[in-house]
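Translate sequence into structure tokens.
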Amino acid sequence: MSLKLKILLPVLLSVIFGFAQNPVKLTDTGSRIILANEFIKATINKKTANIISLQYNGQEMIGKNRSNWNIVGEDDEKVLKNFPHKVIYSIRQDPANNRGERVEVSFQYVYERDTTTLPFDVDLRFTLRKEDHGIYLSSLWKHRIGFPAFEIGQGRMIVELNPAIFDFYTVDANRRRVMAMGTDVSNGIRMNVKEAKLLTTGIRKGEVEHKYDYSAILAQTPAWGWTSTEKKVGCWMINPSFEYINGGPTQVGNTGHVQTILLNHWQDGHYGGESLKLKQDEVWEKFIGPFFLYFNAGSGHDIMWKDALNEAQLQRKEWPYTWVNSAEYPQKQKRGVVSGQIVVTDSYSIDTRFSDMWVGMAYPYENDSFSLPERKEINWQYESKHYQFWVRADSVGNFKIPDIRPGKYCLYAFADGILGEYKKQDITIAAGSNINLGKLLFTPVRYGKQLWEIGIPNRSAVEFRHGDHYWKWGLYMLYPKEFPNDVTYIVGKSDWTKDWNYCQPTVIGADYKVIRGTTWNILFDLPESLNGKGFLRLAICGSRNGEVIKVTLNDIPIGNTGNLPHMGVMHRDGIRGKEVEITLPFDASLLKKGKNSIKLSLNARNWTFGVLYDYIRLEFDQNN
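Result follows.
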């Protein structure tokens, strides 16, 4: 091989395959820290730990307000506290000691009993490897004896990208488009919520821009981000695991919005998520991440998105990362595995069909561990202090959950097509353990024979009217036009994809004041009168704050839901919050031969009160 070819070969390989030939560099300017490889140059403020510049292939990716870790307290209208004043900078992994393979720096914020700051010791870490087209972000949170009580409503990483570069946003296959400009939103007309603006200028003129229309189930969204039509570059948020994200595989969080904002919520109190509550002197710690802020380039938005999805798969295969050197982050050999099969047995349905079964391990809260509002059962849906580990089972319920941190857990399972969930208590995971639980019988609760059903038990209202495009602002205001006489659903004749609205709202006027409540009517025929016990089962996946659904059977009251929990789904243009199951028993003699009617009545105090049904079923037990 000629000397010239030997010199050019590494350069050619780097260009063709993206191989990084030069070592990672760490530079300390006194007030700033610079991490750099061939592709990435990240500049971090030494006092605030904000990323004040992030260049990818020489282009500045970050906007003027920069990128930072952010905490919102119990009052989600404002950030209540700042990070502690004392910060200790250190080099956790020095490229001078690993041949330039990797650098990791740490900014440790130490709580010193200053009540104006967050009552946590916080360690913010930034990691860059030689071959990376992005930067890893992680944090360690500690609450110690002597620290005051506090509630974290939102815990997140906020990245404001360069608006001069990025214009196209991708959440998923249904939400991908060129976005309005920040000035369009600033000049827009406020609608019923402060986050919703009617745009009067720009490419989206005439549309209402609402930041919650970009919310998604984080655990089921592999990569989301911004791309540039002109510069052909992209920036993506990738969670290689969701063990550190609150609320399990159904937690919905905002991913980003106009003004080129990209978000990653590890703690989210929206859509029914509970705030992370810590008592005075409570000892707690949690390691968040590492997650990956990934940059790429390509000829179009589709190509860059597909590449980001591929990168997300690669990152998940690497989890847990072998390069993380922290006692709070156990390596693979110090984690455990649980496997088995969930076998569904239902005496009232010989051929029970289900799909999309999730099986997971979550912290085993005792009944008095913390208080929840009425109608919220303590379980994985509201868990945020600890870690969760979930996988999708196969079509017959086989599952294998890897990489579980040592500890004591409950095992849960739920699936589309099955009302309720499976729970197995007292499973202890030790370092390196491999537990096969064998066949686990999941017998869904049935009170009697099923007479009819509306919808699919899938923890969402996606199968109902507007459920396939729920992310558009204000669909609930179409209700008076589409259902001027309220919903009347005839069992056996009506089509729930058209005749059952995705939400039961109030009827509101132009000033968003309540005009009237709504009553939905379910009509059904019975071939004969019945004696025994009837059971109306309601699965609700969205409510605002204290709504009550009153229920009558043939105009006779049979009960109500009680105050439904705070989820804030409808007014945030959502399709799901947390699942709440309610069973109303009644004397079956109220059921008549021939025509019958069940009415669901909502009388709300303001326009934000709206209920989303996941599923409704009527059961009958003649032996009761």
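Note: Residues 524 and 596 are 5 Å apart (CA to CA).
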